[in-house]
Amino acid sequence: MSDFDFDLFVIGGGSGGVRAARIAAGYGAKVGLAEEYRMGGTCVIRGCVPKKLMVYASGYPEAVKEAQAYGWDAKIGAFDWGIFHGKLEAELDRLEGLYRKGQEGAGVSIHDCRATVAGPHEVALADGRSVTAKHILIAVGGKPFVPQFDGCEHVLTSNDMFKFKTLPKKMLIVGGGYIACEFAGIMNGLGTEVSVLNRSPFLRGFDAESRDVIIGQMERAGITMRTGHVIDRVTKTGESVTVHIAGEAEETYDAVLYATGRVPLTEGLGLEAAGVKLGQRGEVLVDEWSQTNVPSIFAVGDVTDRIQLTPVAIREGHAFADTVFGATPRKMDHDLVASAVFTQPEFGTCGVTEEEAKGTGADIYTSSFRPMKSLFAGNDEKVFLKLIVDQKTQVVTGCHIVGPDAGEMIQMVAIAMKMGATKAQFDATCAVHPTMAEELVTMRNPTRSV
């Protein structure tokens, strides 16, 4: 008989937490899990899934224009947010139910309340109970960060973007990361007048040349993009929100979204009192096995601030369960993790950027062209592809794609990159014609070297 109530207690019902709980339970562990909001976490309930559905919805006006160019007598009326939102909520309910069913089917004991760490082996539940566990896994994810300023209570975060009763006609988005740029495209496509404001360049950290292509196309789509501006304060009058830009005039909008990054959700979790070390941003510091400095406490996903991507959290959670409960020690490999940014145009990326490769001895291959589908429709927008190749080994160390279905393409490229494919092996692969992706295997001469 165990001296603990549970072999594993997971705090957080998001992607990483539920994967770890289910796999550990499959190995015979007695597992408990606490989630204070909704099963599924940020990705399923207030992130990737609803956002991608909104991306789809926002793309239909442009699709109708394209259909007309192809000879269809196509028309589109007004967007009915009420109809879409009702179906969206139903889909999220369905997915949440599947997550819960998966846990229950595995024998995981679910606690629908907040949980905090009370000690190396103790968890305090908000309903007044206290349980003990041989191992505790922190998988609470992150939350949107809004800086403190006068009137900050009047702005929205990404959590609020799926809760509108009616869509705003005019909206300001503050921030320059992928969340800000994704929502700019979504709201613009749904008919909202969108401005984006940031103090520094947009999409920092991504490949600069690819980033410039994206921003240029966003501007041509009618989105106002501005950098070098700071908001002093925000005031609200009735349903209108007024922003006061430092040294400039006031501007009034129906809604203001702050997409200024995310921070680990560790505040008030009891970790420091339990002796767990946190980083400067509040992230749980872990080693390559996702173990904290307290041997019985582990952490996976966004709360560790390693790579904030759902598939990474899932793999970290699975590796943890395999290692601790499956007698199969396994680490998550954080190298060459591909990702997609669902801006409009879409962006797929894997490996180093040109800026990161500068000075290391790399050849840069690029291709920019008008794809067949949009060219025929009279659309001037271009697809952009880039390969970064190490000069010594000829291994492809970076790939960046801007264009339709870039996320689908980068997933396939990432497999080759993970296997260490060389430029010669890319070149030896016969092209699939006519496709956009064929350009990845037909770029013969480098554009430049860095």
Automatic annotation (TrEMBL):
An example molecular function term from Gene Ontology annotations: glutathione-disulfide reductase (NADPH) activity
Keywords in alphabetical order: Disulfide bond, FAD, Flavoprotein, Oxidoreductase, Redox-active center
Co-factor(s): FAD
Range of residues in the leader sequence: none
Domain (Pyridine nucleotide-disulphide oxidoreductase dimerisation): residue spans on this chain: 337-443
PROSITE patterns assigned: PYRIDINE_REDOX_1
Chain ranges of the FAD/NAD(P)-binding domain: 6-317
Superkingdom per UniProt: Bacteria
EC number(s) per entry: 1.8.1.7
InterPro entries cross-referenced by the UniProt entry: FAD/NAD-bd_sf, FAD/NAD-binding_dom, FAD/NAD-linked_Rdtase_dimer_sf, GSHR/TRXR-like, Pyr_nuc-diS_OxRdtase, Pyr_nucl-diS_OxRdtase_dimer, Pyr_OxRdtase_I_AS
Enzyme class at the top of the EC tree: oxidoreductase
Pfam families per record: Pyr_redox_2, Pyr_redox_dim
Annotated family: Belongs to the class-I pyridine nucleotide-disulfide oxidoreductase family.
PANTHER family, alphabetized: GLUTATHIONE REDUCTASE (PTHR42737:SF2)
Protein name: Glutathione-disulfide reductase
Source species of the chain: Thioclava kandeliae
